[in-house]
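QA checklist item 7 of 12: single-chain prediction sanity check.
[x] sequence parsed
[x] length recorded as 252
[x] structure emitted
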Amino acid sequence: MLSIKKLNVCVDEKKVLNNFDLDIEDGSIHVIMGPNGVGKSTLSRVIMGDSNYKVVSGEIIFNGEDIKEMTPDVRSKLGIFLAMQYPLEIDGVSNQDFLRTAMSSHQGKNVGLYDFIMGCEKAIDELKMDKGLVHRSLNVGFSGGEKKKNEVLQIKLLKPKFIILDEVDSGLDVDSLKIVAENIKMYKEENPEVSILIITHLSKILEYIKPDYVHVVVNGQIVDTGDYSMALEIEKKGYNEYLDKSNIMPRD
């Protein structure tokens, strides 16, 4: 589904991703872990097409198409979705209008109000969200947990093929984490061809969404790959052995 080859990315003239390689198969779940400042969130932004990140060289191929020059909206319509670590607040744009407009754009036709309400209410119930949130400005005044649930609500309505979860577990209490993770797992089970890339520091979310592969990133490169057990070991022992192996310290 996604093939990244020798990707080099700079931010403010600093190289953040360094000859980065990653292949994600249809239906697979991959996890990216690593110390702070090694390029994990940069990867998610680059896949989504954030113009603040300069792609110096390399390939990003999604379902056979080179998406490197595509804008974020085009990538989104292809089926790529980024659940952000810090979702944006947009005052004056209601959550309902945002969601319905996004659905209409993806489907290439106007989504009727009745169909939207039916789909939205079902997803909101499954996420145990306050129904009033859909009528408020997008993410304005939402708690951290409500913002993350709202990201998953978008997933359930937009139905992407490839989901990037950028520390979707950060700032969530135990109950909210369980609800968020179980709804993502439910979506994956209903759509087995969907692939997921999880960026996280903690293994707790992986108790609900079992990965096929866990990758450790240091200095903008994958330095080791394993299975779920690797994430558990990292939580116990940290990243010292990977830093020692690469002889590279993380950037601030």
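[x] summary fact logged: Residues 31 and 198 are 5 Å apart (CA to CA).
[ ] second reviewer sign-off
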